[in-house]
């Protein structure tokens, strides 16, 4: 799985390009991309929107990466939002709360 992001006037929007995150190397690469997007949002004063539209499943390591992203966003005063979360991914978030 790979991520891509783009800027709008008030947001940095992150998109996942596959329906599931698989493999440790992929998670590490995606975590780096999420960190880059957070830094961009911080530098530009924009909201960071993570769009889960095409994601149906993700490993625990990716959930962990998102927890670290939340921490980084708070430290950098970035407004982090999650959108279009499927019921299966939402259940994973609830379990790891």
Which structural traits does this protein have?
97 residues, alpha/beta, 3 helices, 4 strands, globular
Give a verbal description of the structure.
It is a single chain. This protein has 97 residues and is α/β, with parallel strands linked by helices. It has three helices and four strands, in the order ββαβαβα. It has a four-stranded mixed beta sheet. Helix 1 packs parallel to helix 2 (60-75).
In short:
By secondary structure, this protein is α/β, with parallel strands linked by helices. 48% of the residues lie in helices and 21% in strands.
Largest sheet: 4 strands, mixed
The structural class is alpha/beta
Considering DSSP H and I runs of 4 or more, what fraction of the residues is helical? 40-55%
Mean pLDDT: 87
Q: What's the order of the H and E elements?
A: EEHEHEH
As a whole number of angstroms, the C-alpha radius of gyration is 12 Å
List the helices and strands and how they pair.
Elements: E1 3-7, E2 11-16, H1 24-44, E3 47-51, H2 60-75, E4 80-83, H3 87-96
Parallel strand pairs: 2-3, 3-4
Antiparallel strand pairs: 1-2
